[in-house]
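Intended use. Records like the one below are meant for learning the mapping from a protein sequence to its folded structure. Do not use them to infer anything beyond what is encoded.
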Amino acid sequence: MLEKIMNRYSEYHPKKNSNFIEIPNDKGDSLWIEFDGEITLLHGDWHCHYPCEDMDDLEEVMHVMDSILKNQECHLEFYYDGKLVGSGSMYQKEKYTEEEVISFLEDFLGVSVFGEVTVHFAYWDSSKDYEMILNV
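Structure written out for the chain above:
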């Protein structure tokens, strides 16, 4: 599995270690692929776990990696009182409305907070990153 990922993403100059692969980007915020009984993708303060039982599982992970590396997916990082309270991913869109982000925060992540929430939208291409302040 490691070699398949190394070969498929060679244009990104991946670095292989014992049980993980690092794909660096321009802002030093690498995409990490960890293998430890399952596959975990990590980017910024976002991460997601995937089963690792067969090649179909690996194909699903590589599909997500493709979306990240092509900026078709962004990671939302939610901070309340300066602390991370959750993260998730959404498909790329020019800008999200406050209503869409609040719905995602409450419905998808199951997080309800009251007060000021800072949302960081993180893309592989950091020039697309932006923040939104919500008062919920």
